[in-house]
Amino acid sequence: MTEQHLSHPVIDPAVEAELKLSLQQLGFEVIDPKLTNKVADVAISGEAFSEFAGRRANLVSCRSRLELKAARATDGKLPLTDRQTDVAVDLAENVAGKSALENAARKLLDRLIPKITQL
User: Fold this and answer.
1) Of 8, 60, 108, 118, whose Cβ has the fewest other Cβ atoms within 10 Å?
2) Alpha-carbon distance 90 to 59, whole Å?
3) Angle at 47 between CA 39 and CA 4, to 5 degrees
4) Each residue of 37-61: pLDDT tens digit?
5) Residue 100 near residue 52, CB atoms below 8 Å
6) Which residues have a Cβ under 8 Å from the Cβ of 71 and sit 6 or more positions away?
7) Would you put residue 49 in left (φ > 0), alpha (ψ -120 to 50) or beta?
8) What is the value of pTM for the model shown?
């Protein structure tokens, strides 16, 4: 998953962390390809970015856009390609950006899970 906050480097990937956490909580076995040679049944990849959207007093808002695709490892077929935009507000710009990305990831998971379980 590639991810960026426009104008600032991303320290840790909010979307990837949210997807892994949510899938594990739902009982899926999550495999990190950086840590093992084991092949997952479904590979999830995508791109995401967040950016500053506005400021009101001490509050900062950020918008995000996330694009995901899920492919079966056996044949590469894409049962899902989808996208989601979202927004979040916080006192800190980076936190607002990450929260907006997490919100988008959760909404996409609602549409992704039923399709993954039908494979």
Assistant:
1) 118
2) 6
3) 120
4) 888 889 899 999 999 999 999 999 9
5) no
6) 42, 43, 45, 77, 78, 79
7) beta
8) 0.86
Residue range 68-118, pLDDT digits in tens: 999 888 887 877 899 999 999 999 998 999 999 999 999 999 998 888 887
Tally of residues, the chain: 119
Q: How far apart are CA 27 and CA 25, in angstroms?
A: 5
Structural domain of 7: 2-117
CATH value at residue 25: 3.30.160.100
State how far the alpha carbon of 118 is from the alpha carbons of 69, 76, 85, 94, 95, in Å. 16, 15, 25, 36, 35
Residue 115 has what pLDDT? 83
CA-CA distance, 48 to 34, in Å (whole number)?
20
Task: Count the domains in the chain.
Answer: 1
